[in-house]
Amino acid sequence: MDVAALDTDGFALVPSFIASETAVELRGMYDDDARFRSRIVMQRHAFGRGEYKYFANPLPPVISDLRERLYVALVPIANAWASRLRLDVSFPPTHQEFVERCFASEQRRPTPLLLKYGPGDYNCLHQDLYGPVAFPLQATVYLSRAGDDFGGGEVVLSENRPRAQTRVHVIQPSQGDLLVLPSHSVPRQGTRGSYRAQFKHGVGTVRWGTRYVLGIVFHEAL
Questions:
Q1: Structural domains in the chain (count)
Q2: Which pTM was predicted?
């Protein structure tokens, strides 16, 4: 994991994190409704256009393993960020321990999800916060080939610093890439120590084709 990029940019792109065969396997799960606890149509909630499905427990092993492995890699960064921001929180070394903390706050619904976008679909800028317990980082894995399976659909990240105009980052990942991004905020260094910069993320309009993405959120939902 590129820790320097996370500290400098607030996000990090890891190329070819999963094989193309795994990407095809994951996006093939979308039509198997037995794997999911709910389906969200974005238009109904003014979230954008398109749809996504939250996986049910037990998670598919490939997703459960990814979630645990990524959490272990990211928890030192999460704790360093909490320390820099002088937050009264620390995160346990394993994801199972963190999930138990979520359960204690009645956050029991799994949050990994598959997203599907077609022509004209997009996702408004947002944060994925589902309750009082939240991990400061999350990840997305890209399952479709930009330029072959779809056009458009760029990832958009907005960064808001106090008393400054919004900065926007636009990214077009390739199939199999992993993007690690903030769930809500990142520490930035100021003249009087660290302060919070708020991040949101979304997806630009898909011009043609179909775009699939796996979202890995580490905290559970109420």
A1: 1
A2: 0.96
